[in-house]
Amino acid sequence: MQRRELIDWLICPDPGPLLAAADRRRRELHGDAVELRAIVELSSHCRCDCLYCGLRRSRRGFRRFRLGPEQALATVREAARGAGTVVLQAGEDLRLDEARVSALCAGVRAAGDSALTLSLGERPRASWARWRAAGADRYLLKLETASPRLYARLRPGHALADRLGALETLRELGYQVGTGNLVGLPGQGAEELADDLLLLQRLDPEMIAIGPFLPHPSTPLAGAPAPRLLDLTLRCLALARLLLPRAHLPATTALGALLRGGRELGLAAGANVLMEDVTPLAFRRRYELYPGRALVEEPLALRRPRLDARLRELGRRLASGRGDALPRALHPPASGGPA
Ligand code: SAH
Ligand code: SF4
Predict the structure, then answer these.
(1) How many C-beta atoms surround the C-beta of residue 214 within 10 A?
(2) CA–CA separation, 73 vs 68, rounded Å?
(3) What is the CA(70)–ligand 2 centre distance, in A?
(4) b vs e for 190-204, b when ≥16 Cβ sit within 10 Å of the residue's Cβ?
């Protein structure tokens, strides 16, 4: 698809054919099984100052946390028991150092067959290499926006080129790479979103996280969510599915925070992955990237049957296994739009 066609799909009155085509493509390649990822939030400390994020360094007056080694390990074990993939996420917190993360990687390996994804921001290549050697399979680092101008404004002191370099490094180290963008950022219209999608297509990552931007009241971008946010996010998801059929595409937690039932809409628009948070509730409340997250307390093993039942009502089911990437050689990025 050319840029013009992407823009047309983002603004046309009826996205129905687009969403249906993405749903068909998802079924052809990934089937009806939905991959489950259990996410553990290790620390809400962050050295970055991203304007959009509730954990940004400049935000004062709230208590941050960092899970202690024992607590982190216990939570990681629960995650590994309940899902085929464990995701360890945190702010860019250097006190969550190389050795500590390595120990957790080893903990996941020892806990069973789950795959391990890290999402700890930009860290030195040597740390990434050590974590890879310790058993990390995947790394999630979103480009957030493909506009160098917008990126520099939203992530002060950082440049899009560095993020692209970081993604390259991760790939060189043998990680399955996840990246993605935010939808509904101030200063972002259909043209910018089309550029996000084209850049994602060029990068051809194994996983693409596309989420709505939900303004946090204690950040400089406080205010109402963008108009048509749900609609735009679903269109972006669907276009990503058509452009990059083999990619794993989560119906993000932020989509669920935007609207009850939002994740189900994502699953019907090309998504094939769900993320479930297993961070102990007292800490999860304080990991506030954006407002409005559902705070389910149940252990993941108990949540699974309920999730599976809900998915079956939609003609889907929970997958078993790690949910690794589909091979690139068999499924190159696509050029066509909805058939
Ligand atoms: N610090 C790491 C991981 C935690 S942030 C990193 O930045 O990569 C994980 C993701 O949360 C970011 O990539 C960003 O896309 C998302 N995020 C941050 N603030 C958000 C907001 N207000 N609304 C929606 N998503 C947000
Ligand atoms: Fe830190 Fe990530 Fe939030 Fe940026 S998005 S402030 S890097 S936690």
Answers:
(1) 22
(2) 8
(3) 24
(4) eebbbbbbbbbbebb
Does residue 155's CB lie within 6 angstroms of at least one atom of ligand 1? no
Q: Look at residues 82, 78, 76, 137 and name the one whose alpha carbon lies nearest to residue 324.
A: 137
How far apart (Å, rounded) are the C-alpha atoms in residues 246 and 156? 33
CA atoms of 188 and 190, how far apart (whole Å)? 7
Question: Ligand 1 pocket, 119 CB below 6 A?
Answer: yes
Q: Which tokens hold the place of 96? A: 């969550």
Domains, the chain, in order of start with CATH, read 3-7+18-318 (3.20.20.70)
What's the pLDDT tens digit per position in 57-115? 999 989 999 999 999 999 999 999 999 999 999 999 999 999 999 999 999 999 989 99
**19 near 25, Cβ under 8 Å?**
no
**pTM exceeds 0.90, yes or no:** yes
**Ligand 2 site, residue 50, Cβ cutoff 6 A:** yes
121 lines ligand 2 (CB under 6 A): yes
